[in-house]
Sequence to fold (340 residues):
Amino acid sequence: MLTRLHRAAPDGPLPEVLTNPPPERRRWVDGEDKAQERAIVRVLDAHFADPDRDPAALARAARGLTFPLHGRKSISAAARRAGADRAHRTGLWLVRHGTAPAEVMAGLTLLVAWLDLSAPLVPRAVPGEADAELVRVLALDDSCVVAALSVLRGLPDHLLWVAERSRGWERVLAVEEICRSAAGELRHWLLRHACDGDYLNHYFVRKVAERADLEGAMARPDADDALVDHTGVLLVFLAESGPSAIVLHDYEPARRVLAAHAAHLSRQRPTWTRYRRTLLLLRMLLADDAEFPTATDRAAYAAVLDRDDWRAVARAGAAAEDAGWWGFETVRALGLRPVG
Fold:
């Protein structure tokens, strides 16, 4: 079912109807339903106690169960008791042939157990390409995303595929998974595409900035437009207190990153999007009651926005906004020349 829905929109997230957890799954989020956890352990132990029982029997036994969004130690231990080979074979069968969420989640749980059991023996066991392509579609569904991302760990192309098609909490989880090994193409993506503007980006912006070494990237004289623009988005989220109480002055390299970003911005072509984003950042910096940022920290940005070419872009953009556009007040507060 998930694969069929994905084919209808291959470059986007799954339909919204699939990304709202039902009441029984919300109980797992709240940590209330221990009975289901015990039932899952019993089903797994009973199945693997019989060495001749085939995967279809586990699929039938798992129907009606509700697996947790995040793993549970008791469930992971039961999956590992199956042994690496049987966990692998059974997990793949369930992922390939499961027709209900519980069957697929049982398969993903077993594949995660297989990877854990294989870790001491090989650098990193990975699913085959065809199975990885199936698992990454499952990662677009909220009920499977955590386990599916664990299976895809170490497969950068597939992790990026998921992240680029995720939204909301699924995107948060995908970006956090990518942050585990933010090197090479993963680091490149994090620095340019991690934020999609959703409020939930607050949950990972600090991690992206630190794990992807935002400071080092912005220190380069050849920083490209995509990096500079996305850094502006990161700074806006860092400057705004979010659900994780993230504020810019708690980010140690903040002043250096701000200075580097302002310097790169001054060399970019002025656009309404860049002007508006920078003014929003300055508005948030003005609202900060802490000693940081100071007027000096804001001066480089103000100098860019007060240039004639940037003011011309702002004038045209502001004319298309409502009469009560918030930017006029910020322009006055910064002591900039009026744009309209």
